[in-house]
Amino acid sequence: MSPRRSLVIVGAGPRGTGFLERLAANLPELYGDEPLDVHLVDPHPAGPGRIWRTAQSPLLWMNSRAEDVTMFTDETVALEGPVRPGPTLAEWAGLDGRTFPTRPQQGAYLRWVYERARDALPPSVTVHEHRTTALRISGPRDGRQRVRLEGTAVPLLADLVVLTVGHLDAEPDGEQRRLADFAARHRLVHLPPDFTADADLAALPAGEPVLVRGFGLAFVDLMVLLTEGRGGRYEGEGDELAYIPSGEEPVLHVGSRRGVPYHSKLGYALDGERPPLPRYFGTEQTDALLRRTGPIDFRRDVWPLIDKELGWAHYHRLFSTHPERTALAWSDFERAYDEAPPRGAEIAAVVAAAVPDPADRLDLDALDHPLDGLRYDSVEALQQGLRDYVAEDLTRRHDPAHSPDAAVFAGLLSVYGQLLRLGKRLDPGAWWHGFFSYLASGPPGPRLRQLLALSRAGVVRFLGPGVTVETDEERGLFRAGSPAVPGAWTEARALVEARIPDPAPEHTGSPLLRALYEEGTRATPGGLLVVDPVDGRILEHDGRPHPRRFALGPHTTARTGSAFTRPRTGGVAFGQNDVTARAALTFLRDRECRLPVPLSA
Ligand SMILES: Cc1cc2nc3c(=O)[nH]c(=O)nc-3n(C[C@H](O)[C@H](O)[C@H](O)COP(=O)(O)OP(=O)(O)OC[C@H]3O[C@@H](n4cnc5c(N)ncnc54)[C@H](O)[C@@H]3O)c2cc1C
Prior knowledge:
alpha/beta, FAD/NAD(P)-binding domain, six-stranded mixed β-sheet, five-stranded parallel β-sheet, disordered C terminus, binds flavin-adenine dinucleotide
């Protein structure tokens, strides 16, 4: 008798859970009531996994609104399998849909979704949870795979493996090793890139200056844990919000390449006329790129199309909702915009003639370098300048009069979807993902109001753009400066790298992925596992999809833009989960037909 068929899912966070949900939904049709073992491997609890575990500070929030998070399919999702509706996070938890839930709240929702998916499986399927780390996968293309687990000598046997391992740790690169070494020699503190909730922040003493490099969401987590997390609190509201320190906070000196935080989350919904997308970067253009021989270069071949696409979204909305702020008939603008090549003087002239106020024009380069060329007379002038910048951003991003910003957000999501089609041939790289997050995935407005209050209280200090960090061997200190205030240096005994670990293959901290890379599994230079865009099968060194190995999620070339799906938005990730679940079930069902000889362990 052949052994029971077995499926191993490595990583039981949101994506592993979403895959299980689709497995359960498709199983009756494709697999019937044959016996099956499903093994879930994760050192963290199944459902929330590592990032959303319920045992973490409730001070940490999601940066999505409760009404914008669902783990369930609806009829807008392109599915072969059945739709299985279910509540959004807001509906399930009874939260006001506009609020930003805490991470433990989202973790509780994910746990419930996991249990519901598990319980939807028929009695013929047995689910085994292994609270440990998978270290290595081995096995031939045409035979069972072995999954070695930490703490167990006997490997799990798998007819199929699905890797939903998400966000991973990294080994330090050359610069991080040099900084760690410097810190060790001078008894300083150096916290390398990490998931902030996991970092040892106790090493940062009260009252001491700390240099922080990075102004994205990892900074926001750090800011929260070192202020409210150390007993500080807020009083008042809006512009009057005041931070009352506990005295336990260090002083955070924060800088980055741009020198500013990510743009505030939009404070309104895009109603009325939406930009018809895609227009300049759709399947026609991506198909044309894919037909070309030779490499696809992001900057040369793709970025100009994205620029024109986002401009189209922006101006379409401006002309349709605020014609009084335009100086040309829409049809004339549309024709001229259409004819002008992207990113040149010609299109700039078309825009300048049609949109009188520069604040109503979309300039992606200026957005990417918001403080370029600015000089401040003093460090104090820089603080005021940055507070004004953040306050203006907050006002604009909560004012529907600037709804072309929301149209650009819709454009960014559309672009992200199109980039997926190029996934096998192009990894757009860290700059694009950073730019996307900076524009489309910034902090909730209330967090930026807290940042302003912390700045007024002197607990957060801005370093400025183009920040450089140096090590002073003689004095045994870190120091940081910015060209925005020439000659001003801030010294500190602590340096925090506020960003998540670099997933580049040569630095991966995942033994599992390292072993896969060693045997030739493909990854992009940016560290994305190359998968078949059709069904998520992992590509081997020769470009062939591995019949028994799948991967889904942010560590793959099929990564989707926004991690959690908004209801009724076509949920690309749900569609991917469905295709992969169906491919897996079909393979498992047909296994013995393809391989008539019983498989040896
Ligand atoms: C700090 C942070 C905050 C975020 N906030 C938001 C947000 O507010 N809204 C939003 O939409 N998106 C957010 N995201 C984006 C994020 O991609 C998703 O929210 C989501 O966590 C992705 O799910 P996942 O299952 O693919 O990956 P993960 O959540 O990383 O889950 C992967 C799981 O795999 C496990 N694992 C990894 N390797 C192994 C191994 N070798 N063996 C066993 N188990 C393993 C891990 O323990 C983990 O539980 C955030 C991301 C981060 C890092």
